[in-house]
Amino acid sequence: EADIYQTPRYLVIGTGKKITLECSQTMGHDKMYWYQQDPGMELHLIHYSYGVNSTEKGDLSSESTVSRIRTEHFPLTLESARPSHTSQYLCASSEVGGQHIQYFGAGTRLSVL
Amino acid sequence: KNQVEQSPQSLIILEGKNCTLQCNYTVSPFSNLRWYKQDTGRGPVSLTIMTFSENTKSNGRYTATLDADTKQSSLHITASQLSDSASYICVVVDRGSTLGRLYFGRGTQLTVWP
Fold it and tell me: Hey, is the C-beta of B104 within 8 angstroms of any chain A C-beta?
């Protein structure tokens, strides 16, 4: 079992609210990632980070933002949640180099009403 | 266009039976191919990783094969158990990317019935 944790596991929130999805890993990995996954669909990369103070946008455009102030912490924020943001959000981390093995958290299932 | 295609989309088998899941990809240049198992409501967990030079790799009852020439992979599950019910995702890593960009298939949803 990988040491990467996401909270909350489930979140139901109203439109317009600001939310932050937490992701922490204790493996000392420099690279971290956020994916979005809809039911029955593939994972889409929305943000990634090479290390502290590094953040990049992924393949799928997202209104969310991320920050990387500490190596172990990579939170994702939505300033104003909308129903279109309803999805599962998965966080992952990997070492630099090697086979880029990514270890995933359990995910946060977000529902915006 | 998704560069990783998996089949079948879903599969139901009886406990104890074997099954084979397919993955075709067009990702190039190719670094490695992985099979992940994703339980409902959980994050994916790596089952096998295969590089260009590997044809077969086993992990317990899971055996993955790779044909880099035809860009095809399969995951064979032997003597299925109820706990094998999950989505199995084929993931291909792009060798040309310093990020180690992953391309995900949509997964095969396997259900094992008692």
Answer: yes
pLDDT of amino acid A62: 84
**Element (DSSP H or E) covering residue B13:** strand B10-14
Chain B residues lying within 8 Å of A9, measured CB to CB: 41
The answer to whether the CB atoms of B100 and A92 lie below 8 A apart is no
What pLDDT sits at residue A108? 96
pLDDT digits (tens, 9 = 90+) for B41-87: 889 999 998 988 889 999 999 999 999 899 999 999 999 999 999 99
Instruction: Give the pLDDT confidence of A19-52 residue by residue, as tens digits.
Output: 999 999 999 999 999 999 998 888 999 999 999 9
Say which residues have a Cβ less than 8 Å from residue B37's Cβ, sequence separation at least 6: B44, B45, B47, B86, B87, B88, B89
Q: Is A60 helix (H, G, I), strand (E, B) or coil?
A: coil
The region that residue B71 occupies, defined by phi over 0 for left and psi between -120 and 50 for alpha, beta otherwise, is left
Residue where the block lists tokens 């190596």: A71
Q: Do B43 and A92 touch (CB under 8 A)?
A: yes
pLDDT for position A1: 53
- Decide if A58 touches B, using CB distance below 8 A: no
Radius of gyration of chain A (CA): 13
3-state secondary structure of A107: coil
The answer to whether the CB atoms of A40 and B99 lie below 8 A apart is no
Name the residue facing A102 among B31, B41, B102 (closest C-beta): B102
The answer to whether residue A87 neighbours chain B at the CB level (below 8 Å) is no
